[in-house]
Specification:
This protein has 334 residues and is mostly beta strands. The chain has 4 helices and 22 strands. Its interaction with PHYH suggests a role in the development of the central system.
Length: 334
């Protein structure tokens, strides 16, 4: 009769990405020689069910032929970026009758998958380019808020709109979520007027600043995200960072750099001749969310009251993208 297999121990997780990882464990030389299969039970951390695993002799979720360790586990169909998982392993020997002799489950190990890598962001960028539409001229960046916000900026912050941490809205794997600080600005305009829309879901006051104060030669532009929230329209998140700044140093290793003068989302064309003005354009068919990584003083622009309908919408803080949208999802999780 076949001798029992020992329980795998010293589980090690390494080379974790947004949709893959490698796993290894220790087992006796005898078990290493005779094991024919590995069973991997992988589940999201939430739930905390102590009976997470099925009956000990029923393989769950992943069954793999025994290979040298560490073993690669990958696949966007069950792994998502920035997600905590629990994993346990079981070794097995397939017998002549097709049944398995199995070990006990190892202890449960927890780990978290990573952000989108540069290759994944370039896939997302490719999708975003297809939805950008034509370029329209604009002249100001703006930020709509309620009166209490601007009062706080004046009295508590010395007139500075200070960078705040980016929340977890949008794509789950975007590297800037909860890691990069900035001031969110808009630049979209109305087709018929070329001006910012009068309506705002954020408040009746608007800070607006000439585009040239922020978008200039020594500023770098990065692509950060492309998403929708169960709506027909899509959002593109861009980061504006002065060259050499702390925000720029973060972005240059984490996000695709865009050419300021030639990209489908937000462009700056410097004057070509004396007396000409700079030309600024934005994409017409997506909503641009521009994260500027430095403080902005109110004195650099003006705060004006806007007339229009200002019904406050439900907050988009930490709102996730639609995982079923074929326009803005890539095959590495959501």
């Amino acid at each position: 009769m076949e001798t029992a297999l020992s329980t795998p121990h010293n589980i090690q997780i390494c080379e974790v990405t947004c949709d893959s990882f490698r796993i290894a464990w220790d087992m006796t030389p005898e078990d290493t020689a005779k094991a024919t299969h590995f069973f991997i039970d992988l589940s999201r951390k939430e739930g905390g069910d102590p009976n997470r695993f099925k009956h000990r002799d029923v393989p769950t979720k992943l069954v793999a032929k025994a290979v040298p360790l560490p073993m690669a586990v990958r696949g966007h169909w069950f792994l998502s970026p920035r997600t905590e998982y629990c994993v346990a392993v079981q070794t097995a020997v397939r017998q002549a009758d097709g049944e398995y002799l199995v070990s006990e489950w190892s202890r449960v190990v927890e780990f978290c998958t990573g952000d989108y890598a540069m290759d994944h962001l370039k896939q997302l960028l490719g999708k975003a380019k297809g939805s950008a539409g034509r370029l329209l001229k604009f002249s100001v960046f703006y930020r709509n808020q309620h009166p209490e916000y601007f009062q706080c900026v004046r009295t508590e912050c010395g007139g500075l709109m200070r960078p705040a941490m980016k929340d977890n809205s949008g794509s789950h794997g975007s590297p800037i979520n909860s890691k990069l600080q900035g001031v969110f600005l808009s630049c979209n305009t109305e087709f018929d007027t070329g001006l910012p829309p009068n309506d705002s879901p954020y408040g009746p006051l608007r800070f607006q600043i000439p585009a040239g104060n922020l978008l200039k030669r020594n500023t770098n532009l990065y692509f950060a995200d492309f998403y929708c929230m169960y709506t027909a329209y899509h959002y593109v998140v861009l980061v504006l960072a002065p060259a050499g700044s702390e925000g720029d140093n973060f972005c240059c290793s984490s996000l695709p750099l865009l050419d300021l003068t030639a990209n489908p989302f937000l462009t700056y064309i410097p004057p070509q001749r004396q007396g000409e003005e700079s030309l600024f354009c934005h994409a017409s068919d997506v909503i641009l969310e521009v994260l500027y990584t430095e403080p902005i003083h109110l004195e650099q622009g003006s705060v004006v009251k806007i007339c229009g309908h200002h019904q406050m919408s439900q907050t988009t803080a930490n709102a996730k993208k639609d995982p079923s949208c074929k326009v803005c999802n890539i095959s590495v999780g959501r």
